[in-house]
Amino acid sequence: MKTLKKLIILFVLFFIYTYFISIDTLPNSIEIFQGEQINIPTLWGINIKKENKESIEASTNLSTSTFENVGNETITVNLFDKIKLKTINIKVLEDVEVIPVGQIVGIKLYTNGVLVVGSTSIENENGEICKPFASTQIQEGDTIVSLNGTTVNNTKELIEIINESKGEEIEITYIQNEQQKTEKIKPVLCEDGQYKIGLWVRDSAGGVGTITFYDEETNSFAGLGHAITDIDTVEIINISSGEIDDVNILAIQKGEKNVPGKIQGTIIKNAEIGSIYKNTQYGIYGIIKNLSNLKIDYTKKMKVASRQEIELGEATCLSEIDGEVKEYSLNIEKIYLNNNYDNKSMLVKITDEELLEKTGGIVQGMSGSPIIQNGKFIGAITHVFVDAPQIGYAVFGDIMVKEIQ
């Protein structure tokens, strides 16, 4: 009997825990387009109502509804229609049209402060091995924002202030895990006459990638479909500014199993296209400055598909492989409808024979290539499978458009 009671208590506790976790993981706010369905996982006994008490159709697996009016709505999550558990704010965005681009560009990013990418022992003027940074908690991935109260914008400024210290203790302010910290550090005079603190830092990053779409209404663009991360820390680079420029494509390294391919290009001087103001896990975003340097086909202006409209099967992507933006065929293999937490929304497979012959599939530089299905923009290529370069992931188009809005 005691064993049975224990089992019952454990079952009840597990039941309560499951419901608690289920409710806790529901978002506090959701952004959708007009007519787009919301998809909210539910458990037995949980129902969802609009603010006007209109019940949203629910099942034990999924609660769905559409909202037609632009603006803000509120829905409540309830237990057995009696106990309010959570309120979710719904922001309904106006249906938009974008122009898929597919142009490969050069990308330059500049950080807020300087990023710490490593540390090293240094030899002082007397031949002694020193680690000035060892007296601090500074780690790889931290961002140095000021020295002695003076803002540091780049590596050059950091070096100048350290040398001006003449070995006197410096107050160093840095960001670690989104928290600002301040400590003291004493630079060491080295044999080359320079004062150093033993940290490797970086203030910029660059590469090539693809512009996904142009929003004519806001004169803005989106690209890549994924964040630009630091090569050493693998953290998303916190930028102060950036730009995209036109490039000359020099060569294509074809992708093979376990050997990722890539597009090699050089930035064209005085060919800036636009400025970057945001680097997120769903791509880079910015404003177009020189439309003449952007290859736009205004006849391709189209609506953004909601994820519920996307179908398994044939689609196309736009990509500039040999200096010209072309449309290539691919297949949508899987759709992860409820994925709102990363940029792996769909599984895609390149099927176009011409593209496979040129690149072997998806290569570095193709990230951001827009995907079109049934006359609508549905997403962008983001990743490649290293062991199968014809296969990769793509992000939903609705996520990228919401990032701009």
Report on the architecture of this protein.
With 405 residues, the chain is mainly beta. Among the domains are: 2-93, Sandwich (Immunoglobulin-like); 121-197, Pdz3 Domain (Roll), CATH 2.30.42; 302-404, Thrombin, subunit H, CATH 2.40.10. It is 12% helix and 49% strand. The chain has four helices and 28 strands. The strands form six sheets. The chain has a six-stranded antiparallel beta barrel. The protein is globular. 35% of the residues are buried. Residues 58-63 have low confidence and may be disordered.
- Order of strands, main sheet, comes to 8-17-18-21-20-19
For the residues shown, what is the average pLDDT? 82
Distance between the termini: 60 Å
State the name of the first-level CATH class of the domain at 302-404: Mainly Beta
**Helicity, in percent?**
10-25%
CATH superfamily of the domain at 302-404: Trypsin-like serine proteases
Strand residues, percent: over 45%
Shape: globular
Question: Radius of gyration, Cα only, in angstroms?
Answer: 26 Å
Largest sheet: 6 strands, antiparallel, barrel
Number of helical segments with 4 or more residues: 4
Sheet/helix structural class: mainly beta
Query: Any low-confidence stretches, pLDDT <50, length ≥5?
Result: 58-63
Please state the second-level CATH architecture of the domain at 302-404: Beta Barrel
Looking at the structure, the CATH topology of the domain at 302-404 is Thrombin, subunit H
Count the beta strands: 28
